[in-house]
Specification:
Blueprint: H1 10-35, E1 39-44, E2 47-56, E3 62-69, E4 75-79, E5 85-91, E6 97-99, H2 107-112, E7 119-121, E8 127-128, E9 132-135, E10 138-141, E11 150-151, E12 164-170, E13 173-182, E14 193-201, E15 206-215, E16 219-220, E17 224-226, E18 243-246, E19 250-252, E20 265-266, E21 278-279, H3 289-294, E22 298-302, E23 311-317, E24 323-329, E25 333-337, E26 346-347, E27 353-354, E28 361-365, E29 380-381, E30 387-397
This protein binds alpha-D-galactopyranose.
């Protein structure tokens, strides 16, 4: 006869009880995520937005996922945790839909480990040297999380926040608006920052990302979207044959810790010249000090622009599927990151193992380390001012 196992010590009993409770909560959350059908919130001229539960954080916060669909079947799923774009399905030249961003099937993966897959990054996208800056005579310290530097807003940046979310729809398309108020001193940054980021899916197969922020104290702000694109489809290997065009005569070379030296260097005659469409892999292995420092492309390009407003920043093209991605932005810079830190240690959607350079990121932004670089366009937002930024990701196909 098997005896029931008795837990004798009260401490252990409590621990076992807590474990059991946690297990019940986790399976309830999983059931909730599976069992509750999505709520259709709106249909508008063949486009649709739905909302469904996507899980619960360890702190007990419910996470929802919004699905935006347009009349052509293009579909974007984005969740309230980190504002993360979980999937983005677009047709290839034969009309076949594939998911063109890396990530996970469920919330658990994103909670375990993620190199910012699909997330809204802030308060300061990219690096701040030595994790400190001086503003109006006061010095501020932000979290050290990348060598000696601060990366992507610190240890608990906007990618790890559960955002409030509301759907919207209208003639411009269907969308979701994420809002979040970051308290004064959050991750060391001054000022209470009220942020709003919207994703709009248009009937022209565009994802429009609009950023808005206000503050009650002067503070640096630099927001971006960190989707990992593979135009051949998630899990289809490296992106080295995919082609890039970048509208930049100059880029910002970096030191060995990926902090810009302050120089705006010409791309002419370097592997950073993408003014003629060139395969990502064509020069990535060249013997070049900058490529060595980035372990590939992990650099900010200075976008050519004649006037403020949207400028066509880049075009990516996958010769295999025919998919194209055009990026336009109001930002001055574009960080090209070629998944150099992906090393096969992450298993993502549908069991896909993400190897070296299995995706590229096109992060529209102000230049890295701007709070410490007086020669760069300012990233300081002051009370009474509005931070506004727009990036358009337009998908299409080419023969
Ligand atoms: C940015 C950085 C990279 C890397 C990725 C995420 O692109 O510039 O160095 O941190 O984010 O891994």
């Amino acid at each position: 006869m098997t005896m029931p196992v008795r837990v004798r010590e009260p401490g252990k009993r409590l621990a076992a009880f807590c474990l059991a409770l946690a297990a019940i909560a986790a399976s309830a959350a999983a059931l909730r995520a599976q069992a509750v059908p999505p709520t259709t919130l709106a249909t508008h001229q063949g486009a649709r937005v739905t909302r469904a539960p996507f899980g619960t954080t360890p702190a007990g916060q419910a996470v929802d996922v919004f699905t935006l669909t347009n009349a052509h079947g293009m579909e974007i799923r984005a969740m309230t945790y980190g504002g993360i774009i979980v999937s983005l399905k677009v047709p290839d030249r034969t009309g076949r839909l594939d998911d063109v961003v890396l990530g996970y099937d469920s919330l658990a993966g994103y909670l375990r480990t993620t190199p910012y897959f699909g997330a809204i990054v802030g308060r300061y996208a990219n690096r701040i040297a030595h994790a400190q800056f001086t503003l109006d005579g006061t010095s501020y310290h932000v979290p050290v999380n990348d060598g000696a530097n601060s990366l992507h807003g610190g240890i608990a940046g906007f990618d790890k926040v559960v955002w409030n979310a509301e759907p919207f729809w209208g003639d411009s398309g269907v969308g979701v608006a994420f809002t979040h108020t970051s308290p004064d001193g959050d991750q060391g940054y001054p000022g209470k920052l009220a942020v709003r980021v919207t994703y709009t899916l248009t009937d022209r197969d565009e994802l429009v990302v609009d950023y808005h922020a206000t503050t009650d104290k002067a503070t640096p702000v630099n927001l971006t979207q960190h989707s990992y694109f593979n135009l051949a489809g998630d899990g289809s290997g490296d992106v080295l044959r995919q082609v890039l065009w970048i509208n930049a005569d100059r880029y910002t070379p970096v030191d060995s810790t990926l902090i810009p030296t302050g120089v705006l260097a010409p791309v002419a005659g370097t592997p950073f010249d993408f003014r003629t469409p060139t395969a990502i892999g064509a020069r990535i292995a060249q013997d070049d000090e900058q490529l060595r420092r980035g372990r590939g492309y992990d650099h900010n390009f200075v976008l050519n622009r004649a006037s403020p407003g949207l400028v066509h920043a880049a075009r990516a093209f996958d010769p295999g599927s025919g998919r194209t991605l055009d990026v336009s932005t109001t930002e001055p810079g574009l960080q090209i990151y070629t998944g150099n830190f992906l090393d096969g240690s992450i298993t993502g959607k549908a069991g896909h193992v993400y190897g070296h350079r299995n995706a590229f990121c096109l992060e529209t932004q102000h230049f890295p380390d701007s709070p410490n670089q007086s020669g760069f366009p300012s990233t300081i937002l002051r009370p009474g001012e509005e931070y506004r930024s727009r990036t358009v990701f337009a998908f299409g196909v080419s023969p």
